[in-house]
Amino acid sequence: MNHVLTRAALAAALTIAASGAHADDKLKVGFMLPYSGTFAALGNAIENGFKLYVAEQGGKLGGREIEYFKVDDESNPAKAAENANRLIKRDQVDVLIGTVHSGVAMALAKAAKDADTTLIVTNAGANAITGPLCGPGIFRTSFTNWQPAYAMGPVAYAKGHKTAVTITWKYAAGDEAIGGFKEGFEKAGGKVVRELSLPFPNVEFQSLLTEIAALKPDMVFTFFAGGGAVKFVQDYHAAGLDKTIPLYGSGFLTDGTLQAQGASAQGLLTTLHYADGLNTPRDNAFRADYSKAYKMQPDVYAVQGYDAAQLMQSGLTAVKGDFSKKEAFRSAMRTATVDSPRGSFTLSKAGNPVQDIYLRRVDGLENKVVEVAVQKLADPARGCKL
Ligand code: BEZ
């Protein structure tokens, strides 16, 4: 890992002294992430990715040292507003980084907007965050739930599937992923014949799998992630359904989960904004650094955290580390090109990545890239007034 200060970071450090800001003010970054429950591994990967980029810049962003604050949001929407306000009001963080669960993230976005605190969403795909809830201080380095799911629609139809059953958790991420797939699949000529769901984070899939077997669709499309995705893929395989009804999903189904899913996941096709085997110099360097630092391979969540730190670096470099220039900081972030391991991306006006969505196939412990399913896919940002 490169701990030497980059030229940009060094220049920023020198110019802070000449600006109105106090050169020794630390930048306060608040992580609101799940560190327990079904999404705990996802929260940890996001934090790891963020801190890796900071370490690569010599431990600073825009020449500023960073003070971290952390809250475990437990993926619990009922506690979300209170947790967000711990970071905003008690700790008075400058930037919020989080979270994973869409329901929690919507409350976080509302609290951030009310307090005019800059928020970078590092996973949760809730369409509303860069839709009706969009704002000048709201950014995302991940995706909308619509994006990867929509991309699977035409891919699945082109494979000859005419009917699909969907299955997911009943909450914003599940509903919106199914909505995205349905839009893409039915536009291509297919038909979603039944939408099945169970409450988040339940994993009692048996009766729903029996229903799928009776319905006999051409295919199943699903959104599950984390521990729930592990159990669903194992149960689908154990029921023997994968022999007759192919399973597809947004790529969260198999990202960061393959070690636990083992044989049950082999051959699965998913769509996502990251893949294994991209084999670009940028991704290879990131993967080498990440595995050296954390003794494990990175996944999509690590990339999203890493890119949040990169996005902040763009904003802070533009204001020469003077974080009090909030508007200039934000507008530099909005117009940045992020040199992401996934491939470089820009943000839409609403603040969401405009990015390639990859088709991937599970092979051993990798989600190997097959092709780009949709190039530079922008979320429609329905309801955003920016
Ligand atoms: C969500 O709630 O938005 C979400 C959670 C895990 C993976 C992807 C999306």
Automatic annotation (TrEMBL):
Q: Which InterPro entries match?
A: BCAA_transport, Leu-bd, Peripla_BP_I
- Quote the CDD domains the UniProt record gives: PBP1_RPA0668_benzoate-like
Segments forming domain Leucine-binding protein: 27-363
Q: Which UniProt keywords apply?
A: Signal
Give start-end of the signal peptide.
1-23
SUPFAM superfamilies listed in its UniProt record: Periplasmic binding protein-like I (SSF53822)
Under the heading Gene3D superfamilies, the entry gives: 3.40.50.2300
Please give the superkingdom of this protein's source. Answer: Bacteria
What family does this chain come from, according to its entry? Belongs to the leucine-binding protein family.
Name it. Answer: Leucine-binding protein domain-containing protein
Q: What organism is this sequence from?
A: Achromobacter animicus
